[in-house]
Amino acid sequence: RSHFGVNSETRLGEIYSVRLLQKLHLSIILTDIVMAPDQKTFVFSEVSKHNKTLDCWVIISGKVFDVTPFMEDHPGGSEVLLAATGKDATNDFEDVGHSEEARDLMDKYYIGKIDKSTVPAKRQYVLSENQSYSSNKSGFIVKILQFLVPFIILGLGFAVRAYTKDKSD
Ligand code: HEM
């Protein structure tokens, strides 16, 4: 009789632990579903497109924030937020020494994570075609002029010498 009792108890225990595991599993699935929108991972090229006053995303500590609704209210101004786009702004943010309140405020603008492998080490300034062409061209002319200056001086020297020689003869 006692043998039977022990057996049924362990079975009951097994059933309970299986149910517990099932519940745990269900709650994990539910948390995944609820949290999924917050866990979106962006690539840098996508985030860096949002670099305007009316559409501004910044990357801080591996997270992406859409600070568009905050531009006007940011105590540091909208310009610094604009300047913080197109790069990992973690250092900029930390250098200011933002308060705990500022950090709490960030949750409001959190939209997802950043795939860190897509963030370039240095800020990339993308020149328009015209800009890069004209700056290359003027750089080339300056180089030629710099190269020619000693020859012009030398030429002038010879010219002056020849001129004074002719006169004295
Ligand atoms: C979601 C992102 C951000 C939030 C929620 C935020 C919030 C705040 C808040 C609440 C303040 C007032 C002072 C304080 O409480 O610390 C502040 C000041 C400031 N923030 Fe931000 N900030 C953000 C991002 C940035 C970034 C990326 C920069 C880039 C450098 C920046 C630069 C500044 C500056 C310069 C000040 C002014 C400090 C002063 O004059 O005392 N912030 N910010």
UniProtKB/TrEMBL annotation:
Ranges that cross the membrane: 140-163
Keyword Metal-binding included in the entry's annotation: yes
GO function term, MF aspect, one: heme binding
Main localisation: endoplasmic reticulum
GO CC list: endoplasmic reticulum membrane
Entry keywords, A to Z: Endoplasmic reticulum, Heme, Iron, Membrane, Metal-binding, Microsome, Signal, Transmembrane, Transmembrane helix
Membrane-topology annotation of the record: Single-pass membrane protein
Gene3D superfamilies: Cytochrome b5-like heme/steroid binding domain (3.10.120.10)
Localization of this protein: Endoplasmic reticulum membrane; Microsome membrane
Pfam families: Cyt-b5 (PF00173)
InterPro entries per record: Cyt_B5-like_heme/steroid-bd, Cyt_B5-like_heme/steroid_sf, Cyt_B5_heme-BS, Cytochrome_b5
Cytochrome b5 heme-binding domain mapped to chain residues: 39-115
Family the UniProt entry places it in: Belongs to the cytochrome b5 family.
Protein name: Cytochrome b5 heme-binding domain-containing protein
Gene source species: Lactuca saligna (Willowleaf lettuce)
Phylogenetic lineage: Eukaryota, Viridiplantae, Streptophyta, Embryophyta, Tracheophyta
